[in-house]
Inverse folding.
């Protein structure tokens, strides 16, 4: 049998030190390559936005139709039944 040598391996990734997170969120700004009309949106003074209380929906049909209307095609009733039954209704 060959003896194996253990070499001290140095990782390729070098970490700079302990992470430090900013106390406040960064100010929103446009991407440097953004079109001029998008940059104007970020130059306007705006008040901080609060999350709306009604933005979370417990069921998908409570959301506006643009979120739950299928874009590709409508599902047939038989396809919906197959999904709900786990495929047991297919023959």
């Amino acid at each position: 049998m060959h003896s194996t040598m253990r070499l001290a391996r140095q990782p390729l990734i070098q970490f700079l030190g302990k992470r430090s997170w900013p106390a406040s969120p960064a100010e929103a700004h446009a991407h440097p390559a953004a079109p001029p009309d998008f940059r104007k949106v970020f130059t306007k003074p705006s008040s901080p936005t609060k999350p709306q209380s009604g933005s979370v929906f417990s069921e998908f049909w409570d959301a506006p139709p643009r979120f739950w209307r299928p874009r590709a095609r409508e599902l047939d009733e038989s396809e919906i039944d197959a999904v709900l039954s786990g495929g047991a209704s297919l023959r």
